[in-house]
Amino acid sequence: MVMPRDPLLRAWVALIGLSLGSTTLTLWHWPPKFAALAGALILTLGWLKARVILSRYLGLAAAPFWRRGFELALAMFCLLLLGLYLLASAF
Amino acid sequence: MSDSSVFDELPGDLMIWVLIVSELLVFGAGLAAFLSVRITDPAGFAAAQDALYRTGAGLNTVVLITSGALAAWALRLREDAQRGLARLALVGAALLGLVFLIVKSIEYAGKAGEGIAWDTHPFFTFYYLLTGFHAAHVLAGVVLLLLVAWQDTPRNIEAGAAFWHMVDLVWVLLFPVIYLLR
């Protein structure tokens, strides 16, 4: 697939692609033992979408210091969500 | 000695970023609380989640992502002195915001028709609280986008678009947690 050169258009295409990825993962009939993996993948796609929005829509791509800070906080928050999600699967 | 600080690097006003961070913390706490309570009853949460209108929520993701792109384009167009196109992009972004709210209203009406209320199950308490609070932000964002389309200085558009992107950012995290995680 050829990605457009315009960073905003590229971001939009990436976000649509990641959303389609989430939908595909949800429609897939996962065996129960892989349900937690599917959930982890869905959360990962949500994290990637949030990164694109921070970087391209909110313009942090031009502010490396702040982008690193926001991405670190976002990654830690998504890890917290993943931990809580997996904790429920463990019981 | 240089007068510049790291705050100068931030796109837009510092205050809009303070607002964005505050909102992200509130929604973040809500989502963490939702997943924490889910630990006590994962089967009940999964059964309740089956009553949700996932297709509509998926459609709304595409709507908000596209609306966010239009708002970002509006700022760039305004900075290139293309005022008419910038205003058009902002109105387009606001209209897509209204589409989001219409789909959300259909979803809420469907739940009400099925007799599902906020106290039906803890899942729905969080569902109405988080998606309702988000929808209120979408409504505020639509008004803001129309306001900055009218008072269209680049600074105003940058602030309005940043608020709108925050609404978008919250949704891409809220949608998988509430609607998709099994």
Number of helices of chain A: 3
Query: For the residues shown, what is the average pLDDT of chain A?
Result: 91
Please give the largest β-sheet of chain A. none
Rounded to the nearest angstrom, the distance between the terminal CA atoms of chain A is: 42 Å
N- and C-termini, Cα separation of chain B: 55 Å
CATH homologous group name of chain B? Cytochrome c oxidase, subunit III, four-helix bundle
> What percentage of amino acids of chain B are in beta strands?
under 5%
Mean pLDDT of chain B: 94
Secondary structure category of chain A: mainly alpha
Q: What's the CATH architecture name of chain B?
A: Up-down Bundle
Strand content of chain A: under 5%
Task: Please compute the radius of gyration of chain B using only Cα atoms.
Answer: 18 Å
What is the H/E order of chain A? HHH
Assign the structural class of chain B, choosing from mainly alpha, mainly beta, alpha/beta, alpha+beta, or little secondary structure.
mainly alpha
Low confidence ranges of chain A: none
Count of structural domains of chain A: 1
Q: Report the helical percentage of chain B.
A: over 70%
Summarize the model shown.
By secondary structure, chain A is mainly alpha-helical. Helices cover about 80% and strands about 0% of the residues of chain A. Chain A is built from 3 helices and no strands.
Chart the SSEs and their pairings:
The complex is a heterodimer of chains A (91) and B (182).
Chain A: H1 7-27, H2 35-57, H3 64-90
Chain B: H1 6-9, H2 14-38, H3 42-49, H4 54-79, H5 83-113, H6 122-150, H7 154-180
Helix pairs in contact in B: 2-6, 2-7, 4-5, 4-7, 5-6, 6-7
Question: Can you put this structure into words, describing what you see?
Answer:
The complex is a heterodimer of chains A (about 90) and B (about 180). Chain A is mostly helical and about 90 residues long. Chain A has one domain. Helix content of chain A is about 80%, strand content about 0%. Chain A has helices at about 5-25, 35-55, 65-90. The model of chain A has no long low-confidence stretch (mean pLDDT about 90). By secondary structure, chain B is an all-alpha fold. Chain B has one domain (about 30-180): Cytochrome c oxidase, subunit III, four-helix bundle (Four Helix Bundle (Hemerythrin (Met), subunit A), Up-down Bundle). In chain B, about 80% of the residues lie in helices and about 0% in strands. The longest helix of chain B has about 30 residues, at about 85-115. The interface of A and B includes residues 8, 16, 56 and 58 of A.
